[in-house]
Specification:
This protein is mostly helical. Helices cover 76% and strands 0% of the residues. It has eight helices and no strands. The longest helix is centred in the N-terminal third of the chain and has 27 residues.
Length: 138
């Protein structure tokens, strides 16, 4: 009996995306803090200000690698929910941007491009989760 079979399936549908999204924030923040927070982003909401500050200071390749590893670990632990894990890795950034757009703060003038970039960052997590699923399938 694997880990996925031991846990409540309804609970997994909530906790896995939350864990993946928080891990995605941790991956972006880790590379930003290691590199240094050179640029600052302004936002009326303090949490969003921190999120966008770490995002604009991320290091591209280490972040991609960490997102891949997050997806891989999730895919190995929960192979049947690999898409859910991989797709939710940048969810916090996407939700924060959408909320700021809805509040009309004016900071997201090119929001379609911003959302495309966030979705681009989900690809490594999806690839890692898919690879984890394939490894566990054998």
């Amino acid at each position: 009996m694997n880990l996925e079979q031991k846990l409540n399936p309804k609970l997994l549908n909530v906790t896995l995306p939350v864990a993946s999204a928080l891990s995605g924030v941790a991956a972006v923040a880790a590379t930003a803090y290691i590199h240094g927070l050179d640029k600052r982003e302004e936002s009326p909401v303090a949490l969003f200000e921190w999120l966008f500050t770490v995002y604009v200071n991320l290091e591209f390749f280490p972040t991609i690698l960490l997102l891949f590893v997050i997806g891989l670990v999730g895919g190995l632990a929960f192979p049947s929910r690999w898409i859910l894990i991989g797709a939710s890795s940048m969810l916090v950034f996407i939700l924060a941007a959408v909320l700021e757009i809805m509040w009309g703060v004016g900071a997201h003038n090119v929001w379609p491009i911003e959302l495309i970039i966030y979705f681009f960052f989900t690809i490594p997590s999806l690839a890692g989760a898919g690879m984890g699923r394939l490894i566990m399938k054998d």
